[in-house]
Amino acid sequence: ISELKQVPAKAKSKLEEYHKILSGIDDVIAQKQLEVDTHLKELQEQTLKFQGPKKALEEQVGKLTAKEDEARSKLTLAQEALQLMRREEEMGKKKLSEMQASLNDVKALLESKMNDLNNVRQAIPNVDKELHNAKVEMANKRREEAECTENVRQCMAKFEQKRQTVEAFRSQNNLLRCLMAEKSSGNIPGIYGRLGDLGAIDEKYDVAISTTCPPLDYIVVDNVDTAQMCVEFLRRENLGIASFLVLDKQERLRPYMAKLASTPENAPRLFDLIRVADPAVLPAFYFALRDTLIADDITTATRIGMGGSKRYRVVTLKGEVVETSGSMTGGGRSERRGRIGQKVKVDTSKQSSEEVSELKKQLTEEQNRLNNLRNAIHQLDSRIMSLQTDCDRLKKNEQNLSNDIEPLERKAVDLERRLKEQTAKVESIIVDDKDIQRKKAEVAELTKARDKALEEADEAREKVAEINTKIQEVYDRVVGPYQKELDEVRAKKENASKGATKEQSVLNNAQRNMNKALNRKNDLETDQRETDEAIKKLELTEDTQEADINRLNKEKIQNEKVMKEAEVKVKEAFNKNSELDAEEVELKKRCANLTRSLLEQLKSLEHKQGKLNMIESKNGEITVEADKDGIVRYKNVPEYSEEEIKNFNVQDIKFALANLEKRKVDKVLNTNGLVEYVTKLERYDRELEALSDISTKRDKHRQFYEQLKKQRMNEFMDGFTRIGLALKEMYQMITLGGDASLDLVDSLDPFSEGVSFGVRPPKKSWKQITNLSGGEKTLSSLALVFALHHYRPTPLYVMDEIDAALDFRNVSIIGHYIKDRTKNAQFVVISLRNNMFELADRLIGIYKTFDCTKSVAIDPGNIRNIMKPLHILEEMKKRKEEGENHAIDDKYEFQQEMVGNTNASEINMRSTQGSKGLLVATEDLSVNRASCRGGDYNAMAEKRKHRNKSEKNIRILNFRVSANEKKSPQKSEIPTWDVPQTITVRRSPASSQFLNEKNDDDDDDDVAGKVTKEARGDSSGMKNVVSKDVSGIVSQLEAGVVQSSTLNQSVAANAVSDTDRLERFARML
């Protein structure tokens, strides 16, 4: 505090010295500046030939310098981060060592009282560790119990399923065994056996034939009578149901059994792969298989069955079937095997019984394991409760010992706490050697990048330096001595100003620092008093807390007893629930089996009803074919024995025959039935012919439909492929390294499941578009939109804030792509990002004033040309704020900008009053930046070549300056009036001309809605600030006219009228 009291006196002394230096230095600077300005014009004429090459090199240097600065900035940040990592660690360790020393001093006094407490604390971690291990073991046992329970359920389900399968197999074998016994006894000799047992096939095709050929379970018999006898036997013995295949009815298929001449892709016929001992049963196998082909997979099966002119039924090695109608079956649990043997029929009933026994044994083992786990869990539970009690007891003893230690221990405990916090803090800030090495590697890489950028920039700088050296030689000879004197005076002023500002700041802060120190002292004293009061209150509440602890311990013991009783009840309920779960599984299995059996019976009944209808229909056709004469013959002709024939009377038979002949002659024949039959037959022929025509048309339409379907597929796949390639290209272009792809969900039927959009953002893995972030989704969607536009352009797009989730880099990429690559369409983009809307050809702003929505249309290209001179004026104003002596340099710099496209030979400007200035208005007025630093002036420019002589439109007005004289410009006379020192530009779309106005200076707030008029750099000071509404400027732009109160009408009449709506300078001050 004593040092702070001496600061104001020292600051005041230094401040007076700086004020003495600054008192008369402005006049000296003004005088020196006039001398420098006098020689600047001469410097410009001598260095004009160096400006063109230098400007091109400076632009290159600017780009390389920006790259160098970026690399240097990254390197600096990395180096500072490395230093910060080490500095924080050293400071933390130093503070930790100081706190450790203080703690050791306090512990020396408390060592005798801490022994018992340390012993208890050493025991607590062991008990905690043992308790933790017990809990972990309990969790593992619980998990094993859950797994074992699930295994028991699965084993029980497998056991029940296998047992029922074996029972069904035994039932089927029993039926077949009984039938074969009847054959052996000679009661039913026409039984051949089960169809699957009569043949053999390679094991490779077992699944295919077993899945696709249910008739393998049919029983083959020689004729219908044998089948009828088998049915009667099964009904009589109550053996169940069976399907029979009559062999003599299948002889009609023998001509079709011959091997096919050719098949698609030479696929084998399943029938040809069967081996039989008796060729007589081959028609039965052909009845079951027909011309079914075999293929390796479903894709090949589809191509073979549906690809040719003739369709085939095809089955895969996995049992998947492609029907001739186009339907496909397979997958799931429909795969079957074992319906036909490989060499000799094998009885699997014994094997199945062994599997059932094995499953039962496995089930018993899992149940025993489950019981053992539950017993172990019960023991662990008791152990955990005991350990928890011991842990609580030790912690209670620790607390009692801690409470018996004198207040001196509190200080030690506090120091320990602070030491632990500091230790943790130090450990957290300790930097890993790998991190340091990684940071060093990063610094090394950045150093290389910096050096590379520096080398490239230095090469360009050397070229610029050569030109600057030549310019500097001229500058040193012409302007150097005067500029040096001016710089020395300015440096002296700047140093004095900085010193005065610094001392003033010290003077202002001295009292504030004094007040802060006093307030901090008072706060510390208040904190000390509050801490002492809190310690006293804690000592008073100690006894009350001990009584509460005893009461809570009693309640805890009671709650533990209640918890034990509840756990016993929970275990009983859990065991009962397990039994109910097992019973539920068994009932569900039985219900499923009954449902499956019912469905099979209904399917069999439906199949047999169809066969019955077919037989009745064929029976009617056979009857009509056999009775061509229309005479119904007796179906049951009686048979007589020899004794009955001997007893016949020939005379009686002749008499009966004569009576029948007479009745036949006397009976009138009714031909109406025949006529009706003929009519029906003719109608049948007509209908049959119509059916044939309709079938032909149907086939044609079906063929045309297939052709269109194929054409649609080809066109879609062609467009899909092109869009996919364009999407990949667009996404890589937008993200600079990512990847994207469009894939079909179902390659066989693209129109059923749609497409899948996969994206791999840069340096990430592949993901579906639904799993991307907002910005990544936007980029992916835009890439797809641009790919679709590439494939088939759309004339108009409307995009609503597509850049909301993108960073500035991606916004710029999307904006430039829309501007450069999509010129064959119109994009209406709603955006709030300047990186997007600044690239637009037409900008429409929406705003609200006085509760009304309004809009304004802007041409950004024209606005940019308008704003360039305004930005120059803004820089000039900033320089003026630093010192009035820059005014002439600023004026000359802006004049160089204004004549950027005029010939150097036409320029004749002087910076002092009483001289004349030249103003040029051309058809193409593009402003080029020029620099005035170090005597670098660039007045070189080339006028644009005009399209033809009639369009050439140039006006040159010379203005001669006189202090109090003003004349109107004439064709042969030069007008004179006051010379302005700054110029402001405003665009008018109707024409392009230079106008001169007195005592006005517009800056770049014109576009924002205001025009600020500022006094020029003379000694008259600042003038009033005037604001204008932007609507007035917009109306002037649209009308193509800018009013000027000081312009002569003859000057306005000579303004350039530009049909191309070129840039217009609105006002020259």
UniProtKB/TrEMBL annotation:
Sorted keywords for this record are: ATP-binding, Cell cycle, Cell division, Coiled coil, DNA condensation, Mitosis, Nucleotide-binding, Nucleus
Location of the region described as Disordered in the Swiss-Prot/TrEMBL record: 325-353, 988-1023
Q: Which residues form the SMC hinge domain?
A: 189-305
Query: Where does it localize?
Result: Nucleus
Q: What biological process terms from GO does the record include?
A: cell division; mitotic chromosome condensation
Q: Which family does it belong to?
A: Belongs to the SMC family. SMC4 subfamily.
Name this protein carries in UniProt? Structural maintenance of chromosomes protein 4
Report the source organism. Wuchereria bancrofti
